[in-house]
Specification:
- The protein is an alpha+beta fold.
- The chain has one domain: Outer membrane efflux proteins (OEP).
- Helix content is 67%, strand content 9%.
- It contains 11 helices and 6 strands.
- β5 and β6 form a beta hairpin.
- The relative contact order is 0.13.
- The N terminus is likely disordered.
- Keywords: Coiled coil.
- Pfam families: OEP.
- InterPro entries: MdtP/NodT-like (IPR010131), OMP_efflux (IPR003423).
């Protein structure tokens, strides 16, 4: 019985370890994201959903048909001796009473066209909502890609240090056994190895957290391990050519929030027109046939019905639409001011991040890597002390983090600027 219980865990454990590594460039990752993201697919369907409402608004009201006053039995007194033929056989309707009515509702004051115009604004808003979701998800996705690249770079630095320290630990262990060095130095080196291993495990946890979000956005198998093959890119183009005023004008043309604000104004404007049209009563045309229910044997009549707008002239709904239009105008003004401030802040943040990265000397990272090998070799040869070696390792890691963080920061600040402007200013 115990063997049966253990077997599923063994199979499940093997399944977890059977993970595939997917190596993609940034551009390839974005291609998968744009094609497979479920939120974008669902939002795109909402456009078709809104178009269906426009199609529904085009339709005329159905005519209604009424058959009533059918009598299934009658007394001799009621018929005064006339023969009654059951309505289900024979000559239907002979000496029988029944009535029929055909009614058609006629929408007045252009209500149908006004409703169609109102629903078309909904289609436009659905399209803008899709673009806004795409812009938000794309910014989030690219920031996560930059974060994953940063973690991969830091992981590589820690692995390189761990490999170097692990080799020294093995070498020192044999020297301790021979009595050439003190056990205290070996223990200190082993503690450094464990510390680096712990830091590396923390980085792996961070990587898993970022990959979880990316795999959801890219619709990847949860067991897939995503690896970004290219290094963080630099800002293409000259930032000095950008002007805050030009970026603000671009944002006014491209920001989806501003388009939504304009559509909100248009929506309430058309709603106001529609609600005012509701003041005019609709007209119902009627055609009636009555058999044996009147002084005439076969009576055919025509008529109409209309509401008398004595009490309800749709005053509340008209006021609602009118107030909504005023609110939309105020909110539009606020959003424009908000967008302008976002663009300026994002532009200034990108300049700060770019200036800092440009101040790092080209080749400085390679110099650090060469010095690490040099220090490890000198420490193994006992040319430098353990304190000097450990101090350098700390400085090496700190500088590596600064360089990689600067690259990530520029990439993310660029995406923030693209998001603020509403289009890709720079790649």
């Amino acid at each position: 019985m115990k063997q049966l219980l253990v077997l599923p865990f063994i199979v499940f454990g093997s399944y977890l370890h059977a993970q595939d590594t997917l190596s993609l460039s940034r551009e390839e990752c974005e291609g998968v994201f744009l094609k497979e993201n479920l939120l974008l697919i669902a939002e795109k369907l909402k456009i078709s959903q809104s178009e269906a409402l426009v199609q529904q608004a085009k339709l005329w009201p159905n005519p209604s048909f009424t058959l009533d006053q059918v009598n299934f039995w009658a007394t001799n007194y009621q018929t005064q001796g006339q023969e009654i033929v059951p309505p289900l056989w024979g000559n239907f309707g002979r000496n029988q009473q029944f009535g029929m009515e055909l009614e058609q509702l006629i929408l007045t004051a252009g209500k149908r066209k006004k409703l169609m115009a109102l629903e078309r604004v909904g289609v436009d808003k659905a399209g803008v909502y899709f673009e806004e979701l795409l812009r938000s998800l794309k910014t989030e996705f690219r920031s996560l890609i930059a974060e994953l690249q940063y973690i991969q770079g830091i992981e590589a630095a820690y692995r390189e240090q761990l490999t170097s320290v692990a080799k020294l630990t093995v070498s020192f262990q044999s020297q301790v056994q021979k009595g050439n060095i003190s056990r205290g130095e070996y223990v200190r080196l082993k503690a450094l190895e464990l510390e680096l291993t712990s830091e590396l495990n923390d980085l792996k946890n961070d990587r898993n957290a970022v990959q979880k979000e990316l795999k959801s956005l890219m619709r990847l198998n949860p067991l897939t391990i995503l690896v970004i093959t290219d290094k963080p890119g630099t800002v293409a183009g000259n930032l000095s050519q950008l002007r805050a005023a030009d970026l603000i004008e671009q944002a006014k043309s491209n920001r989806q929030e501003l388009k939504l604000a304009e559509l909100e104004k248009e929506y309430y404007s058309k709603l106001y027109a529609y609600e005012r049209a509701q003041r005019v009563p609709d007209l119902s045309l009627k055609a009636t046939y009555d058999r044996n229910g009147n002084t005439m044997l076969d009576f055919i009549g025509f008529g109409f019905s209309i509401d008398l707008p004595f009490f309800n002239r749709n005053q509340g709904n008209i006021k609602y639409a009118e107030t909504g239009l005023e609110i939309a105008k105020i909110e539009n003004e606020f959003r424009q001011l908000q967008v302008e401030n976002e663009v300026v802040a994002a532009y200034q943040n990108l300049l700060i991040a770019s200036d800092f990265m440009n101040n790092i000397e080209p080749g400085y990272e390679q110099t650090l890597d060469d010095l690490l090998k040099h220090y490890a070799s000198n420490f193994q040869s006992r040319n430098i002390s353990m304190i000097e070696f450990i101090d350098f390792l700390d400085a090496y890691l700190d500088n590596k983090k600064i360089i990689l963080d600067a690259e990530k920061n520029v990439s993310q600040k660029l995406e923030e600027l693209n998001y603020a402007v509403g289009t890709e200013v720079l790649q």
